[in-house]
Amino acid sequence: MAVAGLCLSAVFGVAHAAEPLKVVASFSILGDIVREVGGKDVSLTTLVGPDGDAHEYEPTPGDAKKLSAAQVLFVNGLDFETWLPKLTKASGFAGKTVVASQGVTPRKFAQAAAGDKHDDHDHDHDHDHDHDHADGHHHHGDADPHAWQNLANGVIYARNVADGLAAADPAHAEAYRQRAAAYITRLQALDTSTKATFAAIAADRRKVVTSHDAFGYFGDAYGVSFIPAMGVSTDAEPSAGEVARMIEQVKRDKVPAVFVENISSPKLVQQIARETGAKVGGTLYSDALSKPGQPGATYLEMFEWNVRQLAAALQP
pLDDT tens-digit profile of 163-190? Predict the structure, then answer.
């Protein structure tokens, strides 16, 4: 009887096994948040993978095929995925789109143009944002799309992901919410420790040059001034005059460290370091996770790595 009972339950188990929800995330950092919250109840595809540059991404026919089969599409929003509307239309995607940044208070690039006095590095670089408009690429508008660089916004992303999954798959709503709650606890703990890490470093040393303008939310949340070498877009090449002005600024402000990102060419940052004597820090992860087995393979690992690299370079 026991054996028969086992067989019967196995049959019922198969009969009641639901297919995982087919979901697509636009880029790797968001994909990892969806993976944490969705767990075994989702089948996840990520369009722009590890070390991939979502600013420069060119969708493939394979992407259209993946999207056409999806039930839910998770996007960052804030004009980050400028290539996505065309892909969505071409794929015939008929599912639900969830904007992960919904409810975030956007940081405006326009603050730079206004000469925002708390981030005195910004006003020297508002011209960089104009490159995007002049060359016809990646029009992000006024809103900075890199909201995940503040862990408090990461919490908002996780809640939006949980709500989106629960709405599309009510049978597993409780599981999504429980996973999100556990994940949010970890994000909040790292947020607290990150604030403490930078509070312990003298304010006049909390200045960094990075490849492009991806760390504004991080700077605002954790008290670090970031000077972007290349503006908002990874394809906006600064002129010789702009590079000279940046080198002058790095010397004037005694910026202790310069960093490259995993999606950018290191040449410009290395030149600035060579001509100013600033220390070259390690690689920072900005718009993409690392490949598996590297230091930034998940959103939490990426953030922890960036904090450690920055704090080490800014110490006297």
Answer: 999 999 999 999 999 999 999 999 999 9
> For residues 276 and 205, what is the distance between their CA atoms, to the nearest angstrom?
15
Name residues whose C-beta falls within 8 Å of residue 211's C-beta, 6 or more positions apart in sequence.
228, 229, 230, 234, 259, 260, 261, 264, 265, 266, 268, 269, 286
b vs e for 69-85, b when ≥16 Cβ sit within 10 Å of the residue's Cβ?
A: ebbbbbbbbbebbbbbe
- pLDDT tens, 97-139? 999 999 999 998 744 433 333 333 333 333 333 333 333 334 4
The residues near 284 (Cβ < 8 Å, ≥ 6 apart) are 210, 215, 259, 260, 261, 262, 306, 309, 310
Across the strands, what pairs with 284?
Answer: 261
Residues 6+ apart with CB under 8 A from 59: 47, 83, 84, 86, 87
Q: Which amino acid is at 125?
A: H
